[in-house]
Amino acid sequence: MSGGTVVPIELNVERVANGGWCVARHEGRVVFVRHALPGERVLAEVTDETTRFLRADAVEILDASPDRVAPPCPFAGPGRCGGCDWQHATLEAQRRLKGEVLAEQLQRLAGLEVKVDVEEVPGAPQGLGWRTRVQFAITPDGTAGLRRHRSHEIEPVDACLIAHSEVERMGVERRNWRGAAAVEAIATGTRERAVVVTPKGQRTVAVPDLAAEAHVLVDEGRGHVRAVRGRTALTERVGEREFQVTGSGFWQVHPGAAATLLGAVLQFAAVRPGDWALDLYCGVGLFAAGLAEAAGPEGAVLGVESDARAVQDARRNLRDLPQARVERGRVEDTLDRLGVERADVVVADPPRTGLGREVVARVAGLDAARVVYVSCDPATLARDLAWFAERGYHLADLRAFDAFPMTHHVESVALLTREPR
Ligand SMILES: C[S@@+](CC[C@H](N)C(=O)[O-])C[C@H]1O[C@@H](n2cnc3c(N)ncnc32)[C@H](O)[C@@H]1O
């Protein structure tokens, strides 16, 4: 907005929308408002304006929702840290709102009427202290902070309440990082050093008394974190099995999420001994391991993953399961390249962009009895489910998990089955 005093507008807040917003209306235009809750009357400052809609921050609550609480974090609130969206709502309300968002996306984009209960993920009872990877932005004077919402500005913080205690014990916020643009701290609980990658190379930082795994990446000032150079593997444990995760390879950030999602995937996949299963976008092999154990030595599992280091990790993590193999490549080309024509079960866990129409068509063509779709984005999940429906696969079951408390993000696991012929 241009300079001068910003006059707040009064809004009656309606429903929740995807992305941590609520919907209101002002002079014929939709307003997407943050820091508000459905049913509230608020004064809001407009932060962004187009011909079709406004964005605004609630700055004063005139009628509060019964779901409202004081944010536990002092850096949450209008114009402050953009890392969390729902610090001002109870955890129960946050989960209800996420369920409403998922249900609304499924209704609007896939024509599905579903009631969604978002389940708690064990390991963060207050919704705090769960984030095992935190990307800190660095101010020009070297102070660590977090980005403000939809902004390049940095909010200096002296602690992040959703960060895991081991990330906090690294003390990234208490060090000076002059010359770096970003630092990513990754904690898992077994390593005792921090590795810093600078433009001049990699160095190891001693972190005194750190009974934590610390892994810090620094970029070259271009505003993004680069993959770590060299082999700095972390070890994650799920049940009896250990998973090596090298560099910035994908692993769930909530310490309870990997085991919880694996449980949901195996429940829906219902793999039987001798089955032929695919794990698409397999990362370091979390789901492939469970599928291979269930399929047994007579079965077979193929993991497909595009990231070279994740493929190396997956092969290592699955080396005691000869029925599992991992192929490096993009899902879009690899199934064709390998001539994969059928499967009993397909698990797919794509990035936020979802599967897309072509991969949906390719997966549906495999004629699997069950397709398990793991998604971190309700909108792309709903879009893809509509395409699956065109090809005869329908939503048979859905579980959703609060793997990112205090934020608007929600993780879903959908079971798709074929229409009987
Ligand atoms: C959400 S992660 C899932 C990882 C794994 N299922 C897990 O739970 O740990 C998505 C993975 O897909 C990989 N990926 C991204 N685009 C891909 C593509 N087009 N083809 C194959 N893998 C891809 C990423 O490298 C990442 O490891």
Automatic annotation (TrEMBL):
- Which GO BP terms sit in this record? rRNA base methylation
The transmembrane residues are none
**One Pfam family name from the record?**
tRNA_U5-meth_tr
Q: Where is the active site?
A: 376
Residues in TRAM domain copies: 1-60
Task: List, alphabetically, the Gene3D superfamilies matched.
Answer: 2.40.50.1070, Nucleic acid-binding proteins, Vaccinia Virus protein VP39
Residues that bind S-adenosyl-L-methionine? 252, 281, 305, 349
GO MF, any single term = rRNA (uridine-C5-)-methyltransferase activity
Q: Which UniProt keywords apply?
A: Methyltransferase, S-adenosyl-L-methionine, Transferase
Keyword Transferase in record: yes
Q: Would the keyword DNA repair be found if you checked this record's keyword annotation?
A: no
The text of the family note is:
Belongs to the class I-like SAM-binding methyltransferase superfamily. RNA M5U methyltransferase family.
Name the record gives this protein: RNA methyltransferase
> Which species does the entry assign this protein to?
Sphaerisporangium rufum
